[in-house]
Specification:
Keywords: ATP-binding, Nucleotide-binding, Transport. This is ABC transporter ATP-binding protein. With 286 residues, the protein is of the alpha/beta class. The chain is 35% helix and 28% strand. The chain has ten helices and 13 strands. Helix 3 packs across helix 4. The C terminus is likely disordered.
Length: 286
Amino acid sequence: MVKIKNLTKRYQNIIAVNNLNLEIKKQEIFGFLGPNGAGKTTTIRILSTLTLPTSGHVYINGYDVVKNPIRVKKEIGVIHQTHNIDPELTGFENLVIHGLLFKMKISEIKRKTEELLELIDLKKDINRPAGKYSGGMRRQLIIARALLHNPNLLIMDEPTAGLDVYTRRKIWRLIKRIRNEGSTVFFTTHYIEEAEYLSDRVGIIDKGKLIALGSPVELINNFGKVAVDIEDFQGPRIEFFNTREDAAKFLSGIDKNAIVRTTNLEDVFIKLTGKRVNPKSDQKEQ
């Protein structure tokens, strides 16, 4: 579905993406993780035909994003972090504007909207001004808009940033349904539990380079299923083990404050990048 070959993007002396090679399978949910400034947004902009690469190639469903940008735009639906919807228009009118940009007929837009209303929870509110929607409702409208022209690839840049926990999990279920309907999903997130729950595979990028690739379980097992949080004269750190028995042997006879627990994806991220995955903002949208 997506093939990225030797992709590099330079901004003067800064290498934002450094020789990235990656393939994303059809109907896969792919989580793209990395610290701030790692190259995630630049990669998304290139996939979305908004930024030209310095070198390398990106193919979406066989189409080169540089040579065939107009065709690629028909293949993708893009959801950015910002809410770029018209608050004065109703939800349906926002969808109509988008559909017309893709040269869809009004009858086709209406039919597709009816289909999407079975997927998203806006049936009662689709004819209300979008400016009166809650944050979660606006996000669902943006997702519906991105799906209106039947894209094969849905690109989502932090799809649940700023949403409360309940709404976030609602969006998670929606993303799963979108995949089950046949779409491929490529998303970034600062919520590690989101990546762990949603992703069939995860790619971790740091300083423009892909440093890890695999399913969440595979990445965790590469380090060890059991994590031990230790704090001693060396400071806080994490040690990894394959079994709790191995962890117990390590701690036996050692006077340390330690917590034994199951390894998670954030442990892997910290070990690889030296940084935590933190949301940009914990503020909830109203």
